[in-house]
């Protein structure tokens, strides 16, 4: 009697790094309100050959031509080496649903889905904390430095604040909609990081600390007015805004439409706008679709926070 082969599929949602107020320290997982997924999927199944990766999906053609450079394969290799396992017997498929270099945590989504999938395939030898550390290291290999504000929310869901010893969930504001718009052009995270100064003036450092502390306090007390008053980026936006085509004009227009906060998602070019209700979210989405999206690769989604993060499905083939 032949034994059924095991198959594991993992979905990892898009994420928004920084959320304006917490450069490299705060991130949010996104779930479109229309129920359509917005994130990469990785499938792992047993095979008789060497470790392999196939890429499919709407943004697969933008991945590195050499599959060995794909972060999903690098994640699988790293995991197998770390576990003392041979590089064979696994066939991986990446469904590349997120645009690359978009500010939607695309590489992080692939990293989270890949590592969660291989870990689940081998019955979870790594704890969630160990896995999160590995995700941060692998994501850091391609984005220019280790930062957890994409991998942590994609893995754990919700709004995640990085601490010295791991990630802590912050209570978000249930009424808020997060409208995200990706114009359809690529901006490399590493290059957008290279625009930033290596040191900040003392006044900026103080303002950053005060704003982040106020935002965290406001989340815990569910003080919406205080949270919105400090949802501002004094660290990265001043250096990045001019490098994102159309960003400053769109931000001004969205504010005029009544959106209480607008910012760069991750390192851009995606922008986000907070909307207090569905009507305002739809007006912002219409504006962004007409004026911020530049080509057919672009997208606009009205989202809530994804409360779940990674989703693992097991099955037999
Ligand atoms: N599975 C993958 N998903 C996204 N990017 C990948 C993947 N594998 C390799 N890469 C490479 O990693 C880099 C990711 O760029 P980055 O600007 O960090 O994108 P993002 O901000 O969308 O994560 C690109 O050079 C891309 O070719
Ligand atoms: N904190 C990082 C976030 C990068 O996010 P990405 O989605 O653009 O990769 C930064 O601002 O550099």
List the helices and strands and how they pair.
Blueprint (H helix, E strand, L loop, with lengths): L5 E8 L1 E3 L8 E7 L6 E12 L1 E5 L14 H12 L5 E8 L10 H16 L6 H16 L7 H6 L2 E5 L2 E5 L6 E6 L6 H6 L7 H20 L2 H6 L7 H4 L6 H10 L4 E4 L6 E5 L2 H14 L7 E7 L5 E6 L1
Parallel strand pairs: 5-6
Antiparallel strand pairs: 1-4, 1-13, 2-3, 3-7, 3-12, 4-6, 7-8, 9-11, 9-12, 10-11
Ligand LJ64HWYM binds next to helix 5.
Keywords: Amino-acid biosynthesis, ATP-binding, Cytoplasm, Kinase, Nucleotide-binding, Threonine biosynthesis, Transferase
Family: Belongs to the GHMP kinase family. Homoserine kinase subfamily.
Catalytic activity: L-homoserine + ATP = O-phospho-L-homoserine + ADP + H(+)
How would you portray this structure in words?
- It contains ten helices and 13 strands.
- By secondary structure, the protein is of the alpha+beta class.
- It has two domains: 6-170 and 306-316, 2-Layer Sandwich (Ribosomal Protein S5, domain 2), CATH 3.30.230.10; 177-304, GHMP kinase, C-terminal domain (Alpha-Beta Plaits).
- The chain starts with 5 loop residues before the first strand and ends with a strand.
- The mean pLDDT is 95.
- The radius of gyration is 19 Å and the shape is globular.
- Bound molecules: adenosine-5'-diphosphate and ligand LJ64HWYM.
- Adenosine-5'-diphosphate binds at residues 63-64, 69-72, 94, 100-102, 105-108, 110, 142-143, 188-189, 266.
- ATP binds at residues 99-109.
- Keywords: Amino-acid biosynthesis, ATP-binding, Cytoplasm, Kinase, Nucleotide-binding, Threonine biosynthesis, Transferase.
- Catalyzes the ATP-dependent phosphorylation of L-homoserine to L-homoserine phosphate.
